[in-house]
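Chain X:
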Amino acid sequence: MHREITMTAGAALSRDAGSSPTRSDVDALAAAKSRLREDGWCVLPGVLAPERTRDALDRLWAAAAESERRGVATHMPVLDPNASNVRVFNLLDMDPVFRALVQHPTALDLVCSLLGPEFLISNFTANIARPGARSMPLHSDQAIVVPEPWLHPWAINIIWCLTDVRFENGATLFLPGSHRFARRSDVPPDALSHMRPFEAEAGSIIAMEGRVWHTSGANITDDEDRALLFGYYTAPFLRPQVNWNVTLSPAVQAGLEPDMRRWLGLEAQANVGLAGAAFAQAPTAAPRAE
């Protein structure tokens, strides 16, 4: 296990407070996008102010309780060895704070830098590693929705750190360079011995390209929770992991802005984003003589 801290250099972004970004903000975001394209990941510190981060964490715990009340368990034995790993689904239906975060300007800027201007919100979930939580199986998120070979970046995770994230409290572990793997057979047998932790302060964003192989870390602390939100975005021709027509209540759907409806695949028209380019390049049949 490499203990190197994977933090992106650069100033914190000021967009959370609604102020105009400074030159250093712009430079930090540009550097993050470059690292995302080259290395498959980046970290942006200070995207959320401390008070907003604490509020989001409080609302996440409330959402976990609401999920249990609705009959949706927060422990998934198929993913996690024990109940110390708390997973919360359908966050977009539970609280407007999560609908705001999934369309946060900095998050969408990173998404568009990798996927282009057209994308879908495939999922938005949470994972809280409590003391004693253990790792899930090694995987890449693009491999879950696209069969191999994985030749292009068609997915990205925007990870919101609601607590400080360290190796000891269960930071996500990733395999450097694995975003270049085209097939499952490219994953080395000793992959787990080469994993590194994403470490960041509360309020940061971690962006991770969909082809990066990773796993949740084990929380080996005695009394420290690690809380992360995962916004999963994909190319617009990939079916989302969630059927938002079913999971979002009529009241929530009715209150969505047009952009959100499009990103969630709730409009009548779908998957025609390349039509203009396809028709422009198509040969035109010459008229036949009568």
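Chain Y:
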Amino acid sequence: MSSTRFVRLAAAGTADILVVSTLAVVAVLAIFAGGASAAVTGGAGTPGAAPPAQGSPSGSPAQGPSAGTLTLLAAETTPRKSFYFGYRYPKLTYTIGSSQPKNDLRIDVVGAAGEVVKTFYRENVAPDLAETVRWDGTTNEGRPARNGRYSFRISPQAAIEAPAARKATASTALSLGFALYGYAFPVLGPHEFNLGAGRFGAPRAGHTHEGQDVTAACGTPLVAARGGTVQYAGYEANAGNYIVVDGRGTPDDFMYAHLAGPSPLRTGEPIRTGQPIGIVGETGDAVGCHLHFEMWGAPGWYEGGSPFDPLPYLEQWDAYS
């Protein structure tokens, strides 16, 4: 629980006030080395890691498409759970069998209701050779796809609708399905929502609480609920160590406060959904170990926007993360 309203620093160049224990520094370094947090968040990498692989190009339909009778010799989708603008996009690795040496294929990302949300076109695909397609989570219209279950579907390009390729034999193991989510729950460990003084709108001296407090043990890893760009990272007397993220593909900004130490991320850096941002602490005016989490609508955090209640969103993300 924090007692005082957070005040944005007057200038990004204001000197940070750092009071960090050796234990906190060691904990942050351990988190950013990889470890369990990456597995929980769909494979989130670290800020020092190589840039994540890009999504595959969509391609274009072939002029006079041609394909033989297709079968699927192998197909595997990894990971089984991904996040929009995360470190690991859903990737399909597949091998076709065909009655001809070159095949023009259509690879669709299909939603749970059978709707096609994204299409990739591939020309002259040879049988018996592994190929890959990586989806970045955007639709054919360029928008972020909705939360849900999806699967890849491989079929020949044709002037009329053609049947999808089927597995080569009854014993052929195929893995085409996966889940995609737009947001990750930011606390990677046991936690509770503070439904009293830590609730959004709870009374304070001269103002109301502008976020939702999530109680967790000090040292619990924290990750970005939504990737985008670090709008600000620093220290403030009330917020303690904090970081604000301008969310990608959304008008919302996300603020995380009372981190045990300064985030390794810096203002202006890109950040991925599920990427580690620090650990739970009790810096600033915090009373006890917890994350203070805010969401701000357009035009953004201290840019004319207003905070809104993040609890319904946190509860939804918590249910699937």
